[in-house]
Design goal:
CATH class of one domain: Mainly Alpha
CATH superfamily of one domain: Tetratricopeptide repeat domain
Distance between the termini: 59 Å
CATH architecture of one domain: Alpha Horseshoe
Number of strands: 0
Order of helices and strands: HHHHHHHHH
Structural class: mainly alpha
Strand content: under 5%
Radius of gyration: 18 Å
Largest sheet: none
């Protein structure tokens, strides 16, 4: 078996167990289990920094997660985890009162391309915008993201979203 595939499987299983019943876990024990798993990757592995950040974030410690997300990005995390790092870093920044930076990071992220996390970027950006007093823009982004999923009224809702921020 591919050692990377085995590591990914064990990581997925650990997170699935936590996500299924987070209240059943001792937070410190969960972080220790994540730590033991990522120790296998080495101290300067971007995925190790990312997974540690996620563990801190998921147990209510945005302040402890922020430097780890930044470290993962500095170390060159790539793929879907890179985008998740930006989303989660931005959310954590908003949680600790740094919403302006959150807005900046997410606005840049929206320009980087498109993937299955587009709506997560938009939702997190909408929240950050409300934190900096830009509620109208936040609603526009949220409605615009939602419009793509509606079985009807897509065009109308997309237009309404646009009109919230653009002059007639």
């Amino acid at each position: 078996m591919d050692p990377n595939a085995d590591w990914e499987r064990r990581s997925t299983e650990l997170w699935a167990a936590f996500d299924a019943a987070p209240e059943a876990w001792d937070e410190a024990e969960f972080r220790e289990r994540v730590g033991a798993l990522v120790d296998e990757l080495g101290p300067d592995h971007p995925v190790a920094a990312f997974e540690r950040a996620c563990a801190w974030d998921s147990t209510g410690h945005s302040d402890r997660a922020i430097p780890l997300y930044r470290r993962a990005l500095e170390l060159g995390i790539d793929g879907i985890r890179r985008r998740r790092s930006v989303i989660q870093l931005s959310s954590s920044l908003r949680n600790v009162g740094q919403a302006e930076e959150s807005v900046r990071l997410l606005t840049e992220e929206r320009e980087r391309g498109s993937d299955e996390l587009d709506d997560a970027v938009s939702a997190t950006l909408a929240l950050a915008l409300t934190s900096v007093g830009r509620e109208r823009e936040a609603v526009s982004i949220a409605v615009g993201a939602l419009a793509r999923h509606l079985p009807r009224y897509r065009r109308s809702m997309a237009n309404y979203a646009r009109l919230l921020v653009e002059p007639d």
